[in-house]
């Protein structure tokens, strides 16, 4: 003996399936807008273009007359006491603290990843595509990172060094 009015409640099942979905959409839409706006810097102090090559990075300070330099890993013969093996470079990216920075990241040859974990930055460098990340550092210091993609035989030898000065 079953009661058909209890087991056949399709209208109720439809309501308790669709109503939570509508509530989730109403919560998500404003959150997506806020998430998008927090990633944008309208007037950055610096715009730096970073181009990944095997096995080095090229940096271009686009706002300052196109200052361009390559950043290679320091070979073991050139390391001084206190330098980090496989993490130090010959030319560091120097930036001021408390300045909004826009990094434009791309690649010349294969997939790379411009990663500085201590600043919470990780952006893929893809050939033919220009990706963007923004940050504002709050503490001076030297921040180290590496390419975190498997982009070739020496992919782990593409260090990134940011020197943030007051």
UniProtKB/TrEMBL annotation:
Keywords on record: Copper, Electron transport, Magnesium, Membrane, Metal-binding, Mitochondrion, Mitochondrion inner membrane, Respiratory chain, Translocase, Transmembrane, Transmembrane helix, Transport
CDD domains tied to this protein: CcO_II_C (cd13912)
Catalytic activity: 4 Fe(II)-[cytochrome c] + O2 + 8 H(+)(in) = 4 Fe(III)-[cytochrome c] + 2 H2O + 4 H(+)(out)
Residues of the Cytochrome oxidase subunit II transmembrane region profile domain: 1-42
InterPro entries, alphabetized: CcO_II, CcO_II-like_C, CcO_II_C, Copper_CuA, Cupredoxin, Cyt_c_oxidase_su2, Cyt_c_oxidase_su2_TM_dom, Cyt_c_oxidase_su2_TM_sf
Biological processes, Gene Ontology terms: ATP synthesis coupled electron transport
Domain Cytochrome oxidase subunit II copper A binding: 43-166
Entry's Gene Ontology molecular function annotations: copper ion binding; cytochrome-c oxidase activity; oxidoreductase activity
Subcellular location: Mitochondrion inner membrane
Major site of localization recorded for this protein: mitochondrion
Cofactor: Cu cation
One GO term describing the cellular component: mitochondrial inner membrane
Name of the protein this chain belongs to: Cytochrome c oxidase subunit 2
